[in-house]
Write a structure and sequence with these properties.
By secondary structure, the protein is α/β, with parallel strands linked by helices. It has helices at residues 3-11, 35-47, 82-85, 154-158, 187-190, 195-214, and strands at 27-31, 51-55, 89-91, 94-101, 107-118, 126-129, 135-138, 141-144. Bound molecules: flavin-adenine dinucleotide (FAD). Flavin-adenine dinucleotide is lined by residues 4, 35-36, 39, 152, 155, 186-187, 193-195, 198.
């Protein structure tokens, strides 16, 4: 999370661009084929990257909903964002094995291997590396967009808060942690999510904090008559 915030602040005129965060004339490889990866691809293209390649560990999804994911399950469909349309080479079922440096330690390439997912009934699928599929790719800027690993731990730990199995701050349904005067909401409570959820959780938590302090609250709450939009 250095490349995108740095770029956003530069666009906003908050600071000058630093060369290390510029993709201009560089062979960029974005590791991770999710939404953050897509943002990295778009930003690299807008910087004028020499090439932009995207690695994804999972196989290429189908264009439409498959029998394995019938409604109402989440459809694992191929997503092509406007950033992808700006230009990128996308590779699926690929695992990065090594970062290759020159004699000065500067990144010059990535070594990869193709992978397959072996289904084992009742167990998690197993990742198998394909023999003889090793390849080296030119790369002088690698961007890691590999997923949300949970909130930063040191401050919550100092407060004596605990975490759920996914590493998020544990909170009750009323957003209160096990420390009565500390509440949690948003990505740090529910894990990687969306702006709409952050807004919703922020409002709900505000209502709960108000109730905790004042004994009641007139702040909007989801299950009130009507919905938040009407308030
Ligand atoms: C690259 C990327 C692209 C995304 N694109 C979309 C999108 O297109 N649409 C969408 O709906 N969602 C998108 N999301 C998800 C969305 O940004 C989040 O779900 C949302 O921002 C969560 O809001 P939040 O307030 O819970 O946390 P955040 O927005 O992460 O805010 C937490 C804030 O707390 C600060 N902080 C952390 N620790 C401390 C501390 N100890 N003291 C003080 N401050 C601290 C952080 O610096 C941060 O500013 C994207 C996320 C990423 C990473």
């Amino acid at each position: 999370m250095e490349f995108l915030p740095h770029n956003n602040k530069a666009v906003d005129g908050q600071h000058e661009r630093e060369a290390q965060f510029l993709a201009t004339d560089r062979d960029v490889i974005v590791i991770g084929g999710g939404d953050t990866g897509s943002d990295c691809i778009g930003t690299s293209n807008r910087h004028g990257a020499k090439s932009v390649t995207n690695f994804e560990l999972m196989p290429k999804p189908a264009e439409g909903r498959t029998e394995e994911h019938p409604w109402p399950y989440w459809p694992f469909k191929l997503k092509t964002s406007s950033s992808h349309e700006e230009g990128s080479h996308r590779e699926w079922s690929i695992l990065t094995k090594e970062f290759v440096g020159d004699k000065n330690g500067k990144l010059v390439g990535l070594k990869t291997v193709e992978v397959q997912w072996k289904k084992i009934p009742g167990e998690r699928p197993q990742l198998i590396e394909k023999e003889g599929s090793e390849k080296q790719w030119p790369c002088d800027l690698a961007l890691l967009a590999l997923g949300f690993t949970g909130p930063e731990k040191s401050l919550p730990e100092q407060f004596g808060l605990t975490f759920d199995a996914r590493g998020n701050i544990k909170g009750e349904n009323n957003y209160q942690t096990q420390k009565a005067s500390i509440f949690t909401a948003g990505d740090c409570r529910r894990g990687q999510s969306l702006i709409v959820w952050a807004i919703s959780e922020g409002r709900e938590a505000a209502h709960q904090v108000d109730t905790f302090l004042m004994g009641k609250s007139t702040l909007p709450q989801k299950n009130m008559a009507g919905d938040l939009m009407a308030v």
